[in-house]
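Lab notebook page, bench 4
Experiment: in silico fold of construct C2
Operator: M.H.
Input chain length: 370 residues
Purpose: comparison with the prior construct
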Amino acid sequence: MAKPAAPVWAQAPASNGILGEYYEGVAFERLVARRHEATLAFDWGHAPPVPGVAAEYFSVRWTGWLVPPASGRYVLHATVDDGIRMWLNDQLVLNEWRPQPVRTFTTSIELKAGQPYKLRVDYYQDILDTRMYITWERPDVPLTPPPSSWRNLWGLTAETPKPEPIPTQFLYSRNPKPGLVAAPAPKLLLPAARPPLPKPAPAVARASLPVLGSRPLPRRRAAPTVLTLVPVSPATPLRPAISPASPTDTARLAWLAVGETVTLPDLFFEQGRATLLPGTRAALDKVAGVLSTRLGLRLEVQGHTDNVGNAELNRQLSQQRAEAVCLYLTAHGANTAQLRPIGYGGTQPVADNADSAQRPRNRRVVLRRL
């Protein structure tokens, strides 16, 4: 029986970087090559990643050390096709290990400047396209749009800088400070548990509700910002004072029943794209705030379009927009497990598409409680 070929050892450059090990098979079956990488950003398309490894059904393990340039909150983005796992100081911070089309996942962590963190990234490729990008947002270099001016139509065409791959200068194949006490595990910035808000009292019998004609008035749920207590006898349950809420009021998210929906207000994208316009982020910040205080709240993020153009392209665009909303929310305090993006295209209109004045109402993002 012929012996398996020995691994190919690529010459390591003198500069910093991270060590990559390339294997045959999706479960690290046979080591084929090792080499030092300048950063974690690869798009191999349909080509083999290194000589001796096929373009499909392979796996890679990158190991080394990350030394952050500043202390604070880092947002790591992983854009992959197919599976990825990431550890910092042996703590699993990202786990999306499955075949999937290209998608972006986000995690937030708290790191200390100058402190080496042991880094490991596992990746596997199933079939078709092959890519793996790790980018970051640094606390000392915030990604903010340029100042509004006539050159960018007062902010309408201004583009927020995109996260960049981790520069080589912050990646090491070996611990650059071996005598330093090992850093504690990075602090994942997941929403902290908080006491639940008071729930409304059980619904009263229909017979006691005031009626118009023969129909009872719909009972509305209380928004947490208008909760008040009224003096009652000890035997009477306390009830929140209820004020009418708009169907687009994000404060209603905390009180949505399973299956109920709310439409996000003032949410706009670039024409024909899934890029959020800068002025619309305030509405998403409110949603992220609600999700960070209600850990049990899970939402289906629905993208909708009008019916103008190709139906399949509309569905793809609506899916991309739903994913863009989820990406923003997870980068600002929400947990990935709380969100499920789905695009419906133009299949669920709420207004007449034949009327140009009403058609824009169909281009929307809706949240449905799961």
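Observations: The first strand starts at residue 8 and ends at 9. DSSP finds two helices and 20 strands in the chain.
Next step: discuss at group meeting.
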